Amino acid sequence: xxxxxxxxxxxKKYYGYDDFREGQESVINTILEGxxxxxxxxxxxxxxxxxxxxxxxxxxxxIVISPLISLMQDxxxxxxxxxxxxxxxxxxxxxxxxxxxxxxxxxxKYKIMYVSPERLDNVKFWEYCRSLNISMVTVDEAHCLSxxxxxxxPSYLRISExxxxxxxxxxxxxxxxxxxxxVKNDIIERLELINPQITSTGYDRTNxxxxxxxxxxxxxxxxxxxxxHQNQAGIIYCATRKNVExxxxxxxxxxxxxxxxxxxxxxxxxxxxxxxxxYDRKDIIVATNxxxxxxxxxxxxxxxxxxxxxxxENYYQEAGRAGRDGEEAECTLLFSSQDIVINKFLLENKDxxxxxxxxxxxxxxNDSLRLKAMIEYCQTTSCLRNYILTYFxxxxxxxxxxxxxxxxxxxxxxxxxxxxxxINCVAETKGSYGINVVIxxxxxxxxxxxIDIGTVNYKSYGQLKDETEVNLRTLINQMICDGLLVxxxxxxxxxxxxxIDRLKQAEPYNVKQCQSVxxxxxxxxxxxxxxxxxxxxxxxxxxxxAKEEGMPPYIVFSDKTLVDMVNKCPKTIDEFLDVSGxxxxxxxxxxxxxxxxxxxxxxxxxxxxxxxxNDC
Length: 616
Ligand code: ADP
Fold this sequence. Notes:
Blueprint: H1 7-15, H2 24-32, E1 37-40, H3 47-57, E2 61-65, H4 69-81, E3 86-89, H5 95-106, E4 112-115, H6 123-130, E5 134-139, H7 159-165, E6 171-176, H8 181-191, E7 197-200, E8 208-214, H9 218-228, E9 233-237, H10 241-253, E10 258-261, H11 267-278, E11 284-287, E12 300-305, H12 312-319, E13 329-335, H13 337-348, H14 360-379, H15 384-391, E14 408-414, H16 416-429, H17 435-442, H18 448-453, H19 469-481, E15 485-487, E16 495-497, H20 501-504, E17 510-517, H21 529-549, H22 553-556, H23 559-568, H24 573-577, H25 584-609
Parallel strand pairs: 1-6, 1-7, 2-4, 2-5, 3-4, 5-6, 8-13, 9-11, 9-12, 10-11, 12-13
Antiparallel strand pairs: 14-17, 15-16
Helix pairs in contact: 2-3, 13-14, 16-17, 21-23, 21-25
The structure holds adenosine-5'-diphosphate.
Adenosine-5'-diphosphate binds at residues 15, 17, 19-21, 24, 41, 43-49, 298, 324-326, 558, 580.
């Protein structure tokens, strides 16, 4: 039996886990030895435990600087549910409430106190902290320190000064999921970390399945996908408020239990819709990228992007909101060439009022490089995971065999002749029609619309009648990306001529075409129907208990813990404690209810199936 004062015993007792994940133990040991550290670990890797366990072991209190109120509230709820005393101070608390927290902290009630960075702008808070025995200052989401990142928070810059003013320098630990070399250096310098140990477990999120679907029938794709993934929580990201509202309507019409979120809604509506999703009252949320920062919901099983985001950084962050619990989850990006037009438009109209005049050109240049990489991601036929990892500076491994591209077969074809006919057709339209008319015309479609507008009389009409629509669409998309064609961003987007020099050269014009899908994406690891029924039953029980406590269901137990429960079928408290994610406090609180449900389920199913009770 381990000593209860060892990190591994605390992990088991409070969090219910048997082993540390990659990087956790070394970060914890570094901190316990009194050293500063910077840990770069992907979302869902388990950064919180890395500072919470030392915080529990240190004599004094740990102050965690966390950028978002909802995040800190969630963390405190999760800690309390594991019977760890923690508190937070933010602008939502009244002066009286803050005074009460201060008094409790001074009395030694808490081991961990979360504060927003803006609290550091408050002189009284500095004075108060000087009276405390602070063992550690933890900086969560430390990339907010860097102007290079998109989440820069000026108040973060005060942290080093705050630490210096304390009577005794505490350990400083910093955590982030997104650190490029520039951001990493910024964090170390601006926090004035002393010989920090840097732990980087890489960017890979092995439980996420990535896919890109080139389609113009995006609404249908989304509805079909959701109907095939019933009862799963999912986020649909759109580039604009208008699209959010459009997709939301489509889902409601299809009788899907959805809500929506964008900056145009009133504060109260936003809060209500967000809570409906977090508390599992709604399965789906359709949102702009305003949604997500500060959302800790761990049981999001899929993220679909209706539009391509502006950068791989944005995409990885948004898609990364899937599967935080480590269970299998899917990230799908729906791509059409129209997305390039929308994003170029959004970038051209970006607000630069906060950017110093002399930096505007550089920022614009970087924006366009980021967009280019994003477009490449949508068009590559190689491993999508490798593309992302390479982008973040990690070495390529073999193909992941767990992304849409690794599941597909492609063939490369020289489509120069076809490309020339596309150009001819666009020239004949004199830039008046969009991609659909061009494709239909080239394929010689018999439609009254084509007769009305006269494209049936073009020379190009029917010249590519043997090509599939998908192949022609892929070709035209590539021609747009390569600048041979230009797609306008007017309401009725049309195709115009671009620079066609490339087609005049001797080289072939290679286009990669999808031939077939080899493998299906893996689903979660509940294998047979009987298990799914039990899983569903336990989910409902979790929802009821969460409602009674006013808590998000994933804080009661994560999906991963429910899956383990289904697979282990515990029938005693000891067996229940063996389930990953069940610590002592939760076993005492919820054990009877869950064990009762499992026992009853196995009794009923063995009655029905005339099987032995132990077959659960
Ligand atoms: P991050 O902050 O890195 O995104 P979290 O700290 O929120 O990740 O942890 C993500 C999930 O992983 C949580 O459900 C957490 O309880 C779980 N987790 C953390 N450490 C372990 C571990 N050693 N074993 C199993 N699950 C873990």
